[in-house]
Design brief:
Elements (H helix, E strand, L loop, with lengths): L27 H6 L1 H9 L10 H5 L26 H30 L3 H12 L8 H13 L3 H13 L6 H13 L3 H12 L8 H13 L3 H13 L6 H13 L3 H13 L7 H13 L3 H13 L6 H13 L3 H13 L6 H13 L3 H13 L6 H13 L3 H13 L6 H13 L3 H13 L6 H13 L3 H15 L1
Helix pairs in contact: 4-5, 6-7, 6-8, 7-8, 8-9, 8-10, 9-10, 10-11, 10-12, 12-13, 12-14, 14-15, 14-16, 16-17, 16-18, 18-19, 18-20, 19-20, 20-21, 20-22, 22-23, 22-24, 24-25
Length: 486
């Protein structure tokens, strides 16, 4: 950034005061008492020069208000010494450069957060905090806590939260909820409830409906329905009314657990409620439950029911239908929904293409999978991590392992975030190719990148080792799994 340039050169040249020839020279005593004379005498202290020509006189500076031509203020009696203008300019330049540096590093922090590069984000954040002029804000901590939670780094989120408290930043219910969500994303239910209890003891950080909704989700995801009832009771005691989002989470949990009676009971309560009516997300939740279970008839039945309730579908609704039809290889219905979207001017999204790619990838149809991916890129649609997971799985299922390598390289070129699902897809491809050395290299890279392995990671690797009778490798992997859990 170009530094601001200030020109003070005019202050060092004398102005041309008009002289009255009829006035006689004053005495020395009179001169000493006259401050105006002191200014003029200082201005003409330089060696005599040629009189200014008429041309140069016409180009003289017109002084701005407050400027002292030909002298500095320190020549006046009783005026404090001013900082030299040269030093002032250096100071301003240094300040501008510091601001420019701060802006650049702040942009780097935002960029790392946007790209989900949590390790780089923490490094840049630590660099910024070392600067005296930088004061972290609540919003920055919130973004980092959310990023760490989504990246499977709950312990790092806890460390960051403690650092925030040590530095004097006041906690809020939102920040506590972000920390609690980080625990929930990593299935650390006990730590999440401990955070809830801590919030309840702080008057300014009382849990709200979002806090409870986050906890309810992790409970239903793990079929901890006994905890769900306790949370509902606690919400009632605190006069916190479950909203539509909360109820949609519960509907999804009951549906995934096959508790359809409870699911319909919750839905009936929503229909009778005045402030918690079902919405398009409710519709998406229900049809997604049946779609994922392959119960196409029930999915279509509930789709029609919600339409009769007056709830209109959205792009995500159609994407759920496409994904369900694709998994059952009902390509005609899948195409019909896509044509219907075009007809109603619903845009095809990345999720739309991912569902189609996933359908072809599941059966190893590399040709149609590549055609869909090419069309996706031609329409300017941005691929994401799931896109490349599907492509990698598709090439592996088709036995095209050389294309798996090309796909991984392309993902790096596109700066696709490498999360646990991405590494699992590559590890699975290596296992199918029976290339255990490459599988171990990918696993090591995964660990080096601070990407936490999950149950799928260990399951794929254990199965690969079992096929080769490598029991020592299985033992080492199980020990490593136990250490990671600690």
């Amino acid at each position: 950034m170009a530094s601001m340039s200030l020109s003070f050169s005019s202050s060092f040249f004398p102005s041309h005061f008009p002289q009255d020839k009829n006035k006689t020279h004053t005495t020395t005593t009179h001169r000493a008492e006259d401050p105006i004379f002191g200014v003029i005498r200082c201005a003409y202290a330089a060696p005599a020069t040629k009189p200014a020509s008429p041309a140069s006189t016409s180009k003289r500076r017109h002084w701005k208000e407050g400027e002292f031509p030909g002298t500095s203020e320190r020549s006046l009696p009783g005026t404090p010494r001013r900082v030299p203008l040269k030093n002032l300019k250096k100071k301003l330049d240094r300040k501008n450069k510091a601001k420019a540096w701060a802006n650049t590093v702040t942009e780097a922090l935002s960029d790392s957060i946007e790209k989900k590069q949590w390790l780089q984000a923490l490094e840049v954040f630590d660099m910024l905090k070392e600067q005296s002029f930088y004061q972290p804000k609540e919003g920055t901590y919130m973004k980092l806590l959310v990023l760490l939670g989504k990246s499977g780094q709950p312990h790092r989120a806890h460390q960051l939260f403690n650092t925030m408290l040590e530095e004097g930043c006041e906690p809020t219910a939102e920040l506590y909820t972000a920390l609690l969500a980080a625990y929930c994303r990593s299935n650390l239910i006990d730590e999440a409830f401990s955070t809830l209890n801590e919030m309840k003891n702080l008057p300014r950080c009382q849990p709200d409906v979002f806090t409870y909704s986050t906890l309810i989700k992790v409970c239903v995801d793990h079929s901890r329905f006994e905890l769900l009832e306790l949370l509902y009771e606690e919400m009632a005691e605190r006069s916190i009314i479950p909203n539509t989002v909360t109820q949609n989470i519960v509907l999804s949990g009951y549906g995934k657990a096959g508790k359809f009676d409870q699911m319909e009971k919750v839905l009936s309560g929503m229909l009778e409620s005045n402030g918690c009516k079902p919405d398009v997300w409710t519709m998406n939740t229900i049809i997604s439950v049946f779609g994922n279970k392959g119960q196409i008839d029930m999915m279509e039945k509930w789709y029609e029911k919600f339409r009769n309730f007056g709830i209109e579908p959205e792009t995500r609704t159609f994407n759920i239908l496409i994904g369900a039809y694709g998994k059952k290889r009902m390509y005609d219905k899948m195409s019909t929904v896509m044509e219907y979207m075009r007809k109603l001017q619903f845009p095809w999204t990345t999720s739309t293409y991912n569902n189609v790619i996933e359908a072809f990838a599941a059966v190893g149809d590399a040709k149609n999978m590549e055609y869909t991916f090419d069309q996706m890129r031609a329409e300017g649609m941005k691929a994401d991590t799931k896109t490349f997971c599907c492509l990698i799985n598709g090439y592996a299922n088709a036995g095209l392992f050389h294309k798996v390598i090309s796909c991984v390289r392309l993902a790096g070129k596109f700066e696709i975030p490498e999360n646990t699902s991405f590494y699992n897809a590559v590890i699975s491809a290596c296992a199918k190719a029976e290339d255990l050395m490459e599988m171990e290299r990918v696993y090591k890279r995964m660990k080096d990148k601070q990407c936490q392995p999950d149950a799928t990671t260990y399951s794929v690797m254990v199965e690969a080792y079992q096929k080769e009778g490598m029991n020592d490798k299985i033992y080492d992997l199980e020990q490593e799994k136990k250490n990671d859990a600690c």
